[in-house]
Amino acid sequence: MNRKTEKSLIVGLDIGTSKTVAIVGEFQPGEPVEIIGVGSHASRGLKRGVVVDIESTVQSIQRAVEEAELMAGCEIRSVYASISGSHIKAENSHGTAPIRDKEVTQADLDSVLNAASALAIPGDRWVLYKEPQEYLIDGQEGIRHPVGMSGVRLEANVHLVTGAASAAQNIMKCIQRCGLSVDELVPSAVASARAVLTQDERELGVCLVDIGAGTTDISIYTQGAIRHTSALPIGGDQVTNDIAQFVRTPTANAEEIKIRYACALAQLATAEETIQVPSVGDRPPRRLARQTLAEAVQPRYEEIFEMVQAELRRSGLEELTRAGIVLTGGGAKMEGVVELAEELFHMPVRLGVPQHVSGLSDVVSNQIHASGVGLLLYGAGREAVRRPAGAGVARVGGLWDKVMHWFKGNF
Predict the structure, then answer these.
(1) Which GO terms describe its cellular component (predicted)?
(2) pLDDT tens column, 115-144
(3) What's the whole-model pTM score?
């Protein structure tokens, strides 16, 4: 496909508990990323964000990537991939480095970031993500963009996100088995925040809650910088299981009922509304009041939000999140979720859909794709600094490379 050569292609691979999504974007510095391809496939190889079956995970990555390649008319070689799970932990660190030429350069920023990351991190954990919160030059605080400023000593407060090395290695192994290289693994909470939060919210203080199928990812921002990240081992799958048990129907049917009829706040569903529920085996389907279904769903969402609130309190940042809560992810699509969250948190709550991108509108305007779009935005920021245009994706010859890679791997 003959696209303008000055544009770079970038790929976000969101490996979730219920689905794997590959999103291809085209970008050039100074312009919004344009989404030109998307592929999605059901995922069965993960449990609560962590790989439990390599073969199934490889298969779902392969299917999603092939679909995205077909739509975008390109060959994918490398991806920015998401990582989640309750093994993800965050801490705030401090680093110091001398300013080499008495004027701060990008190299000085890199060395102070590395100094802050050189904590005694156990061998079974990896630093997945690091982001400077603010800089100090010769003791002067509150500096956000120090490049070009004069001084002798540069310090930085840095937010570090670490994860279990084994969990990260297993995700990378699955991606590499598909003949792809991993540009970076990015925590889902960080990626989603890139896609759905506004700069004003980050400044004022905001808590992002991404409710996925297996995990609920949280990131908290105040004064324009990330302060806290975590992943809770609870999500939409538990809601599906509750419905399956409550109405005694198979899980696949329960998932469909959840998507089509469920409501997270019982008072929004009237008792007159009824739905048809398939039964197990060859028993005839039954009718059920939609309000009764909501009464089965509401307690689980209350539990999710109580766990989020406990995490918010534990972070010590509850009083500083003045912009309130932003909900995103597939679990936030249900009717009544925002209203229930407002009742429980006593602060403003809004639904977050991906922003800052153009292109395929069904991807852009859907909170299910918050993490995938966020990976594109994160990658575009990294690529603009690091790599010349057109490097990550080959338009010609790539397919032959892949065939040769497969051939070598199998014979």
Answers:
(1) cell division site; cytoplasmic side of plasma membrane
(2) 999 887 888 999 999 999 999 999 999 999
(3) 0.89
Per-residue pLDDT tens over the stretch 261-290: 999 999 998 878 898 887 777 788 889 899
Between 365 and 387, the more confident residue is 365
Closest Cα to residue 229, out of 122, 329, 315, 305? Answer: 315
Please choose, from the candidates 189, 176, 180, 196, the residue with its C-alpha nearest in 3D space to the C-alpha of residue 220.
Answer: 189
Of 3, 2, 10, nearest in space to 29 by CA: 10
User: Helix H segments across 159-198?
Assistant: 165-177, 188-196
* Strand ordering across the sheet containing 206-211: 225-232, 216-222, 206-211, 325-328, 349-351
Does the pLDDT at position 409 exceed 70?
no
Tell me the residue ranges of DSSP E strands in 190-281. Answer: 206-211, 216-222, 225-232, 274-277
For residue 73, the model assigns a pLDDT of: 94
Residue 311's beta-bridge partner residues? none
Residue in the structure block whose two tokens are 């297996």: 214
Residue 29 — pLDDT band, cuts 50, 70, 90?
confident
| Paired tokens of 72 | 């975008």
106: left (phi over 0), alpha (psi -120 to 50) or beta: alpha
Tokens of 217: 């990812």
Burial call 71-102: b when 16+ CB within 10 Å, e when fewer:
bbebbbbbbbbbbbbbbbebeebebebebeee
pLDDT at 406: 44
Distance CA 19, CA 40 (A): 7
